[in-house]
Design brief:
Layout: H1 3-8, H2 22-32, E1 37-38, H3 39-42, H4 48-54, E2 56-61, E3 65-66, E4 76-77, H5 88-99, E5 103-108, H6 119-132, E6 137-141, H7 149-157, E7 162-164, H8 174-177, H9 184-197, E8 203-209, H10 215-227, E9 232-237, H11 256-268, E10 273-276, H12 285-300
Parallel strand pairs: 2-5, 3-4, 5-6, 6-7, 7-8, 8-9, 9-10
Antiparallel strand pairs: 1-2
Helix pairs in contact: 5-6, 6-7, 7-9
The structure holds iron/sulfur cluster.
């Protein structure tokens, strides 16, 4: 069954109308006019209007082509993508200023082809955006830099307010779901190092459900993720990219009641904040609201 047929079997709680409206159109043109890509549009995210309307947006930086090929992700793959646009930091800073958002998630493709895997460019983006928008909170959703600490530290030194890296799925499914350059313990290592290197900076990760994981595996993932000091976790339904045959099929549409229960089980394990629901994505408005409030309280203290 391909993704289109799969979409026809969506349960009622996953059937929604895609967002439109003048504010969405204005913000879309702001980013497109500078050749910037928002994950919100690329992933046809159902939360777009809520997030953009509420003052957050997620940008994919370093281009739209990745050197990896995870089997859940709709981003294009190539061994040698085009070089990152040296003007991107300035364009991003101006677009975020125009959009008037107060929380921005910057996510990135993997660039295993570059000597520093893009760490320098990412750091430049954070610094430039911060210089142009001093009040804006930046969440940097990072790749794993194949576990190279100095590259991770280069980006953290640029001063993102939140450091995120997605574990994506439970340990047993990692080899099936993620690119072979990715790894479960490698991702936990990135999150551990981020917390050790900048203990005051909140760390965050995300798990997709519906790929065939068991409840015990989800709970073990919670424990593994808490053991490396992660503060924030989001849980959402995996959906196969529209019209795709080669991406992984959905094994289960997890019921909202189960998401609520998993959310409770995660909270019991001491996460500062948990967002869990069919439409929750790694960058999710509610989580950002919480973080922004926390960061501002810390700033005021
Ligand atoms: S590394 Fe990230 S952007 Fe690249 S294919 Fe995997 S999930 Fe997609």
């Amino acid at each position: 069954m391909d993704a289109t047929a799969e979409r026809r079997t969506l349960p009622p709680w996953l059937k929604v109308k895609l967002p439109t409206g003048p504010n969405v159109a204005r913000l879309k043109s702001a980013s497109r006019s500078r050749g910037l890509a928002t994950v919100c549009e690329e992933a046809r995210c159902p939360n777009l209007a809520e997030c953009w309307g509420g003052g957050t947006a997620t940008f994919m930086i370093m281009g739209e082509v990745c050197t990896r090929g995870c089997r859940f992700c709709s981003v294009d793959t190539a061994a040698r993508p085009p070089r990152p646009d040296p003007e991107e930091p300035a364009k991003l800073a101006l677009t975020l200023k125009e959009m008037g958002v107060d929380y921005a998630v910057l996510t990135t493709v993997c660039r295993d082809d570059l000597p520093d895997q893009g760490a320098g460019h990412l750091a430049e983006c954070v610094k430039t955006v911060k210089a142009e928008n001093p009040k804006l909170k930046i969440e940097m959703l990072l790749q794993d830099f194949r576990g190279e600490r100095t590259l991770l530290e280069t980006v953290i030194d640029a001063g993102p307010d939140v450091v995120a890296h997605n574990v994506e799925c439970v340990e047993r499914l990692t080899e099936t779901v993620r690119d072979r350059k990715a790894g479960y313990s490698q991702s936990l290592g990135v999150l551990r190092r981020a917390k050790e290197y900048a203990p005051e900076t909140p760390t965050k990760t995300s798990l997709m459900l519906g790929l065939g994981e068991t409840e015990d595996e989800i709970l073990k993932a919670f424990d593994d993720i808490r053991s490396v000091g992660v503060d924030i976790i989001t849980l959402g339904q995996y959906l196969r990219p529209t019209g795709s045959r080669h991406h992984l099929p959905v094994k289960e549409f997890v019921h909202p009641d189960d998401f609520a229960r998993y959310g409770e089980l995660a909270r019991e394990r001491g996460f500062l904040y948990v967002a869990s629901g069919p439409f929750v994505r790694s960058s999710y408005r509610a989580a950002e609201l919480f973080l922004k409030g926390r960061l501002e309280a810390k700033g005021a203290a």
